[in-house]
Amino acid sequence: MATQKGIMNTAMVQAIGVRKQFGSTEILKGIDLTVERGSVTCLIGPSGSGKTTFLRCINHLEKVSAGRLYVDQELVGYEERNGLLHEKKEKDTARARMSAGMVFQRFNLFPHMTVLENIIEAPTRVAGRPKRDVIPEAQKLLERVGLGDRGMAYPQELSGGQQQRIAIARALAMKPKLMLFDEPTSALDPELVGEVLEVMQALAETGMTMVVVTHELGFARQVGDHVVFMDAGVVVESGSPDDVFNSPQHARTQAFLSKVL
Amino acid sequence: MATQKGIMNTAMVQAIGVRKQFGSTEILKGIDLTVERGSVTCLIGPSGSGKTTFLRCINHLEKVSAGRLYVDQELVGYEERNGLLHEKKEKDTARARMSAGMVFQRFNLFPHMTVLENIIEAPTRVAGRPKRDVIPEAQKLLERVGLGDRGMAYPQELSGGQQQRIAIARALAMKPKLMLFDEPTSALDPELVGEVLEVMQALAETGMTMVVVTHELGFARQVGDHVVFMDAGVVVESGSPDDVFNSPQHARTQAFLSKVL
Amino acid sequence: ATSSATDVPPVAVDSAAVKLLPPGIASSGVLRVAIPTNEPPTQYYEDGTQTMTGINPDIARLIGATLGLKVEIDVANFDSIIPGMAAGRYDMTVSSMTPTTERMQVLDFVDYLQIGSSLAVAQNNPLALKVTTLCGHKVGLLTGSYQLTENIPTYDAACVSAGQPTIETSEFQDTRQAISALTSGRIDAVFADSPIVSYAALQNPSIAVADTIDVTPVAAGVTKNPQLVTAVSAALASLITSDAYRQVLNKYGLGDGAITDARVNFAQG
Amino acid sequence: MTFVNRSVETDALTSSQSDPVVPLRHPVRLAIAIVLVIVAAGVAWDVAMNRGYRWDVVAQYVFAPRIISGAALTVGLTIVAMAIGIVFGTILAIMRLSANPIFRVIAGAYVWFFRGTPVLVQLIFWYNIAALYPVIVLGLPFGGPGIVIGSANVLIAPITAALLGLSLNEAAYMAEIIRSGIGAVDRGQYDAARALGMNGRLLMSRIVLPQAMRVVIPPTGNEIISMLKGTSLVSVLAISDLLYSAQIIYAANYQIIPLLIVASLWYLAMTSVLSFFQGKLERRYGRGFDVRTSRSRRWPLRKAS
Amino acid sequence: MTFVNRSVETDALTSSQSDPVVPLRHPVRLAIAIVLVIVAAGVAWDVAMNRGYRWDVVAQYVFAPRIISGAALTVGLTIVAMAIGIVFGTILAIMRLSANPIFRVIAGAYVWFFRGTPVLVQLIFWYNIAALYPVIVLGLPFGGPGIVIGSANVLIAPITAALLGLSLNEAAYMAEIIRSGIGAVDRGQYDAARALGMNGRLLMSRIVLPQAMRVVIPPTGNEIISMLKGTSLVSVLAISDLLYSAQIIYAANYQIIPLLIVASLWYLAMTSVLSFFQGKLERRYGRGFDVRTSRSRRWPLRKAS
Ligand SMILES: Nc1ncnc2c1ncn2[C@@H]1O[C@H](COP(=O)(O)OP(=O)(O)OP(=O)(O)O)[C@@H](O)[C@H]1O
Ligand SMILES: Nc1ncnc2c1ncn2[C@@H]1O[C@H](COP(=O)(O)OP(=O)(O)OP(=O)(O)O)[C@@H](O)[C@H]1O
Ligand SMILES: [Mg+2]
Ligand SMILES: [Mg+2]
Questions:
Q1: CB D114 within 8 A of CB D122
Q2: Which residues of E fall within a CB distance of 8 Å from C90?
Q3: Minimum-distance ligand to the CA of A48?
Q4: Closest-CA distance of chain D to residue B8, Å
Q5: Could you tell me the CA-to-CA distances from E126 to B100, C221, E265 in Å, in that order?
Q6: Is the pLDDT of residue D18 over 70?
Q7: Beta carbons of D65 and C83 less than 8 Å apart
């Protein structure tokens, strides 16, 4: 699904030796990873392996401690001027975040706003676009996730699956170039998982670049172009879903897959 | 696994036309169900079908609105004297609850107490047993669930799977005749599910009567003696795991199973 | 009879006293006087208005008239009068202060009236109290009052030497609270400035004045400014000989309180 | 043994068990309740009948112009001082939670100082600040040169001093309340907002503060009620709020208890109006939050229903 | 373009990006901070030097016996009144959450009444109750027969009236605080405790109240601080608390500002001690609760770390 291949800087996400420490504990221990434009990359791995942390780095929610991380050709957290790395201003970081949409495990919809208000909040307040343009778009997004009639509801009135679909619509409303999903179905009742995965699959088919942390191996197999297995802050193994699931090379990958399947 | 069969009152749980309404909405619409002593009954069904409500009725946490529910030969919520049903005193209900142990989806450990304090709280305070007897027992229970060394930890310091195992140990500390599980693994990361199911399986093998609400069909198939499919407050179908999973009779059961599998 | 409280009888301007005024006050033509908050009858709001009336505001107005100044009355709680004078917010206060050496470190004083101390008791004086028979009784007093700091220690000493128990004092922030403690039977007597006690007895049939003693001068307090205190004392010296002074005293039933000598910084006790 | 299988009546607030059911009796609870009701009725009867309360005097003064203007002043002071206190308290709360240690220390010191000193002292201080600083000078500290702005006595009228004292003090309390409210907002809300490109002021005003409201409203209600009553402290500056107006009247007529009742009636009326709006606001900001939480609050004498 | 792949130093509080990194400068923030520090230092310098504060008089009175005994009385009143207020407030909170409507109404009316009337009025009421009820009679209401217990003045000493007034009033505020604390305890905790056979008093005292503590402590700290200062109201009953002791002294010598400073220093000392213990208690009862919650409170000027 990758649309265009240059040397390395055509990639949507490019991580080179990315490290991240909190205090004195190192969570990411040198991650190298390339996410091609238009591809779906699935991140799997045991709890605490650093998947969420890495995703947050991509979205500028955390600043990398070492190594370089490029998202859409832009260095995350720093600016390079005269060969020096300058820390970015919070304002610029916030702007940079708009290029990626993020969907969280626990939805994190704004509980004090209706579904429609949730969706139009960022386009109107952050991007400063007029409401009359944004509302019809939001309505279309709602229909796309199958919830065209729930715009006036409050998040709390919806099921988990519906909330997660709204969260996807909210992220899409900012027209991101990249979508990040952090275990988007793991807080859902098993029967609600399907509806969210369906929306994600439809999104992948539009050519959206996606990075998905997930334990839904079925989804990874069916929709993913690339599967990355992380453990203890490093990428242990990566490749096509077939390769990783059917013939894992590392013992750690094998052990993990035997538990999850 | 049923040890002894009388007419109907040797059953551990006997529900006859059990109805439950909250305000004017009826949640349970006449449940008939028998749980034999020593058997493992798995309750499955879509969200909102009343599984949790029924489990709470069994444990006297809710009072049935109509029909009769016997647990270990005792009528739930009422006492029969001179042919009249007398509402039970809260004190007697509390005592009755001790015959069943309950494990919740979200663990509900007491966050302000250590693991050991969680376990000995009810035996010492409710049953009034001396600490010197209870502590060694608690230690044995901890070892049984594979956490012999975590007695001094606070629940928050443990992983979800460990917390759920502690919750099981806590319920067992009251030496219940019956264990009720309400989706004990659905709040867990997939790789932690196994360790809890293992503990439950070991418990089933000791001959404990268990009622388990679960979406883990693998567990139901392997450990369950009996599977009950509920929908919209009624029992739609019940039987051996093989019957229900492999040749479901009702369209609703079929539709549900196709989603969950 | 319709005269408003701000009307005081006319007095002549004392041009000699005017010459003594500090230049700041002379040029502004205004004398800013702090009057304590409501305490009938010495100072109180005229019924239904925001105008202060009573012996203290009237004396202040007379002093101002003698000095040819416009008087600006500022009502303030006692707690904020003295800091306010130090801050230059007010030039003078007329608030029935008893001059003591301790207080003279902060203010200068010029006598303007003499008042006594009265003992209020329950109607018919069931305990037959006099100021000299208070030993062992419960007496309410105003915080920091002359009666509390000067009279009571003397009486206590007498009680001790007579082998009797000392007086049980309660200090109130407000004479009214002491009076209501007396009416509810919590204390046996209230010992306070005679005008206030007489006024309370008038209002309240269940109490009576049992004894009045110790008629001593009270003084106007002036900010520490040698020019101002001489001007005010000169004004008072001529004022106390005027008819207006007597008329004002009589209006509030305090005709006996007239003084003949406006002494400066003459400490009592 | 018979088992009931009939259909169930739908009026379900009471148990609709179809057998004849004997509801549980709570003899002790009933007895306590009866005693309490009798005591309450007795107190009410006594209060109405006891001539010591002088209800005639109460009726005479309850709408006296002086009382009404005192009540108006109390309401006015409360509104202005609370408004300033809330705005300034919010800024302080944000400073205390800031990453900048200097801001944290300054806000912390402010809260410590203003919560730690009596309002009375603060009021007297502001009123008499001229004793310490006869002219207000905008200039360099340590005795450096400066521009004279004006005399403190001219600048700080009693009512200004009252507002300064009350609102600066209130800001310290509100800072603590708002800080705890901000702390109660789920971390995920920050992440979600920042992931959408929100930041700083926008994140605070659109996402965090509206959600903090839910936690902030009840203690703020307490604060407003305290402030309504606390304005009586300004009587040291000879400003006549409600209570002081009553005191002025009873100073002249010695009808202490009836006039205190008059003041209390007004305070009760104000508090009731406030509680009404507080309830509305709580519902308004509780909207969209877990209904189950509110269900869980009726405890512990409730029967397993 | 060079990519760093070297191993990372472990002293990691600062970014350990191995390229030379230019940290972000915050010129505006820095400027504000510098200005604030200078102003604070200037104020401190001025306060120390300004002769208007009369530090000599402050030093003379700060340990005066009258001040010390006033401070002791303030502390004593606060401890007793808060203790009664907390216990009674807990009972009221439980009553307000009860299923029994009579309990709910009575507790609600109590809170409404006592929050709605000024403490001053309540104090004066209790103190002067003898004017209304010269003898206290335990008996039937509506004028029924009763047993005379004794004279109100004997039974209700000024200090008793002070304690009655302060603690009954405090109970109303504490009831609201504890009610909100109980409401914050997760519903699942009730279920878990009841499933283990716990009930009523045991459930409350072992499970619900200890967890409510976390939410209850900060506003209770506010209440204690308010009470420390609020005890000065008892001066209407001729009881000399700390502030009133200072007032008695300056009534005699007119050194008002220095004596108010003396009182403020004591209040600040008490508040500081209290805040210290409050912090300890908060940590104690915060133990076992989500650490992430506390991590989320440092906002919003923090950099993405
Ligand atoms: N802000 C932080 N400060 C300190 N440690 C943190 C922080 N965020 C995460 N960690 C730690 O980093 C490690 C990796 O966390 P991360 O959430 O990235 O793992 P994960 O792979 O997403 O796991 P999971 O499957 O449980 O979500 C964990 O041990 C976690 O405790
Ligand atoms: N206390 C209550 N008051 C009112 N309605 C309730 C109450 N408890 C549960 N319900 C309603 O009863 C229905 C059944 O709830 P229940 O929790 O028993 O379903 P469930 O089968 O356990 O579903 P899930 O799989 O989502 O846990 C739901 O619609 C729920 O909203
Ligand atoms: Mg994660
Ligand atoms: Mg359920």
A1: yes
A2: none
A3: 1
A4: 12
A5: 54, 38, 31
A6: no
A7: no
Residue A114: the pLDDT is 92
**Would an 8 Å CB–CB cutoff place D290 in contact with chain B?**
no
Residue of the CA atom closest to atom 26 of ligand 2: B47
B86 pairs with which residues across the strands? Answer: B79, D22
Query: Is pLDDT above 70 for B200?
Result: yes
Closest ligand to C-alpha of residue A43 is: 1
Buried b (16+ CB within 10 A) or exposed e, D85-99: bbebbbebbbbbbbe
Of D130, D131, D252, the CB nearest to C40: D252
**C4's tokens:** 């408003």
Average pLDDT over residues C61-77: 90
Domain D57-284 falls in which CATH fold? MetI-like fold (1.10.3720)
- By the 8 A CB rule, do C34 and C85 touch? yes
Name B93's Cβ contacts closer than 8 Å, sequence gap at least 6. Answer: B60, B77, D304
Percent with pLDDT over 90 in chain C: 39
Centre a 10 Å sphere on the Cβ of residue D41 and count the other Cβ atoms it contains: 12
Please tell me the residue having the least CA distance from ligand 2 atom 2: B22
Collapsing DSSP states into helix, strand and coil, what is residue E30?
Answer: helix
**The pair of three-digit structure tokens given for residue D234, joined into one six-digit string:** 């300004």
Q: Are A16 and A67 in contact (CB under 8 A)?
A: yes
Residue E9: per-residue pLDDT: 34
**Residue whose C-alpha is closest to residue B116's, from B131, B91, B138:** B138
Closest of A194, A116, A113 to residue A161, by C-alpha: A194
Q: What pLDDT, on a 0 to 100 scale, did the predictor assign at position E284? A: 81
* Residue that has been written with the tokens 């002769």 in this structure: E51
Looking at the predicted structure, is the pLDDT value of residue E8 above 80?
A: no
> Distance of alpha carbon E167 from its chain centroid, rounded?
13
The shortest CB-CB distance from E8 to any of A61, A66, A88 is to A66
Looking at residue B12, what DSSP letter applies? S
Between the alpha carbon of residue A233 and those of residues A29, A77, D132, the distances in Å are: 5, 20, 63
Q: Find the mean pLDDT for residues C68-90.
A: 83
Query: Is E236 within 8 Å of C173 (Cβ atoms)?
Result: yes
Cβ pair C105, C265 in contact under 8 A: no
CB B38 within 8 A of CB B2: yes
Q: Does D99 touch chain B (CB under 8 A)?
A: no
Q: How confident is residue D154, by pLDDT bands cut at 50, 70 and 90?
A: low
B17 HSE (CA, 13 A, CB side): 13
Contact D155, D173 (CB under 8 A): no
Residue C89 with chain D: CB contacts under 8 Å: 128, 130, 153
Position C79 pLDDT exceeds 90: no
In this structure, the dihedral spanned by the alpha carbons of residues C247, C252, C255 and C261, taken in order and rounded to 10 degrees, is -80
> Of the spans A2-16, B204-218, E72-86, E252-266, which averages the highest pLDDT?
E72-86
Question: Shortest CA distance to A188 belongs to which of A211, A209, A174, A167?
Answer: A167
The pTM of this model reads 0.80
Distance CA(E248)–CA(E239), nearest Å, equals 11
Q: What is the dihedral of CA C86, C92, C93, C97, to 10 degrees?
A: 90
* Cα-to-centroid distance, B152 and ligand 3 (Å): 27
- Contact residues for D122 (Cβ-Cβ < 8 A; gap 6+): D114, D165, D168, D169
Share of chain E above pLDDT 70, in %: 77
**Considering only CA atoms, which of E72, E60, E56, E54 is closest in space to residue E249?**
E60
Mean pLDDT over residues D224-235, rounded? Answer: 86
Alpha helices for chain B (secondary structure H): 51-58, 90-97, 115-125, 131-144, 160-172, 190-205, 217-223, 241-246, 251-260
Q: Per-domain residue ranges for chain D?
A: 57-284
Q: Tell me which chain A residues have a C-beta less than 8 angstroms from the C-beta of D196.
A: 97-98, 121-122, 126, 170-171, 174
